[in-house]
């Protein structure tokens, strides 16, 4: 028979042989941890996607996301203010860039004129602008036979020495300019789908309330066509432009054929996103995942075969 004959668990305490099985790694918290979510983790069909509570004045987006009027208006207003702030910052940055480019072009032109004056007038420039050290050094070895120090008196030379950049001083070091970035997007977006959303895209939702005293187990609304109460598993559509909420079955079987409801023409529907019911087929996210990468000495779990603790924080016993 191959092997040493010792089981893996017998060799676990030897330094350098802390090889863990898949189940041991899972117990220690390595890898992806999955958790099943329940109904309480997903909002109801009539709850606001921002406030996560019952929407008092419901509005629906073209993608079927339900919001309360107060919450979505506050969100869009905040986005507009943020867009205006970032737009002003971008315009200020563009203005500074233009001024900086114009200043650099002006300095470059002055240096070229001053260099021309020094070469043609024996080093005595007629330009009123001061001669930069970079422009003077550029003349050395350019084939003209005139260096940057020729024709400059002692006073000018001393002044240039004082203007030499001391890069080691904090006051002389260049500063990194904070860049705003690209031009900001000027469109407001839906906080759930991140698609373009404007105030005129929101459609008011008109629910049909359940009659008082009816035994409906606490349900608030019902379909005005079939008179069946709405639950988180019901497929609901909102009629355009009236905003009446009906079940999808009633729309397909009754309203769609006539093209009108309650004397008003139907120009289309918006499929309302369903609430959470805990079933995988509901279309909502019912599972949560998180990646953990725990190493030796992280403090989150004992290392197998080293600390010899009675049990790990994840339930795995070592001895």
Please give the oligomerization state of what you see.
single chain
In terms of DSSP E residues, the strand content is: 5-15%
Q: Which class of secondary structure composition applies to the elements?
A: alpha+beta
Mean pLDDT score? 75
Order of helices and strands: HEEEHHHEEEEEHEEEE
Globally, the shape reads elongated
InterPro entries: NOSIP, Znf-NOSIP
Pfam families: zf-NOSIP
Family: Belongs to the NOSIP family.
Subcellular location: Nucleus
Describe this entry's structure for a reader.
The chain is α+β, with helices and mostly antiparallel strands and 319 residues long. The longest helix has 52 residues. The C terminus is likely disordered. It has five helices and twelve strands. The strands form five sheets. It has a three-stranded antiparallel sheet with strand order 3-2-4. Strands 8-7-11 form a three-stranded antiparallel sheet. Strands 1-12 form a two-stranded antiparallel sheet.
